[in-house]
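TA notes, week 10

Several of you asked for a full example with nothing omitted. So below is the full record: structure tokens for the whole chain, then the designed sequence directly under it. When grading your own attempts, check the secondary structure regions first.
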């Protein structure tokens, strides 16, 4: 399992009774795999509708009360999920469509992920769109209550060429995926500027954003690959009712130039979110 920075994984036993809610919830009508139930969680694949080039689906993760799991970039401490689709049949590619996450404090370390049940949508490109698809997933991830433990789920699901019936849970998850946007775009939420500032030897990134839900707005900044480990920003009031996010330049790999490297900014605003990929300005 790939780890982000130094994050202790402590094996813990989880009482069997804690998983009872996973098995007693009402079954859904859409196509779905069997549940895999590691301690503290239960995971399955669900099917969704298709268009002329791709099929939709999702990885549904249910969490026991008080537990959490991690986003693609887990923050100060955590383990990003690893999806292995190599056993699939008639699959040319699988794209993960991440729902907007939240930040949480783990004893002084700030992490990013999900504290409630989540469906992570996927977009599947078949090798031959006229034939069925067999999805096989080996998922390595982590779940945490007060301590964290590694988890693994092995799942399989057959999808017909025309896809499956729409799933309300999958539709809701797709709606929560951040929408692509450009730096300086109009509308709300929006990221207006992202500036690299320097005071002596100290560098920081200052991002101005517009939001209609300031109490629930947050921002996550990522580099181009897992070798980057940028910190979570602090938040302050900005001009004209805007929000300013500030983070120190830290966690940049040796040899990388943050002044010229496009970064990925995910701005959440309650139930809405946007994602911007852009280099920093230096004015």
């Amino acid at each position: 399992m790939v780890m982000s920075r130094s994050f202790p994984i402590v094996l813990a036993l989880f009482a069997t009774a804690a998983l009872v809610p996973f098995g007693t919830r009402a079954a859904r009508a859409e196509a779905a795999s069997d549940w895999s139930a590691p301690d503290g969680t239960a995971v399955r694949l669900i099917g969704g509708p298709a268009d002329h080039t791709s099929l939709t689906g999702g990885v549904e993760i249910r969490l026991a009360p008080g537990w959490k799991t991690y986003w693609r970039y887990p923050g100060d401490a955590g383990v990003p999920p690893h999806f292995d689709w190599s056993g699939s049949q008639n699959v040319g590619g699988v794209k993960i469509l991440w729902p907007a996450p939240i930040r949480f404090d783990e004893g002084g370390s700030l992490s990013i992920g999900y504290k409630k049940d989540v469906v992570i949508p996927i977009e599947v490109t078949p090798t031959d769109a006229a034939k069925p698809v067999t999805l096989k997933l080996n998922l390595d991830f982590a779940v945490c209550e007060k301590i964290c433990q590694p988890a693994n789920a092995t799942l399989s699901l057959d999808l017909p060429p025309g896809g499956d019936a729409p799933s309300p849970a999958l539709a809701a998850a797709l709606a929560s995926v951040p929408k692509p946007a450009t730096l300086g775009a109009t509308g709300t939420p929006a990221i207006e500027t992202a500036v690299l500032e320097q005071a002596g030897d100290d560098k920081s990134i200052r991002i101005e954003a517009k939001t209609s839900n300031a109490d629930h707005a947050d921002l996550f900044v990522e580099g181009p690959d897992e070798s980057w480990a940028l910190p979570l920003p602090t938040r302050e009031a900005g001009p004209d009712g805007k929000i300013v996010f500030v983070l120190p330049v830290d966690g940049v790999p040796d040899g990388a130039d943050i002044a010229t490297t496009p970064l990925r900014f995910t701005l959440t605003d309650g139930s809405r979110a946007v994602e911007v990929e852009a280099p920093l300005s230096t004015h």
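The chain has two domains: 16-175, 179-278. Use that as a sanity check on your answer.
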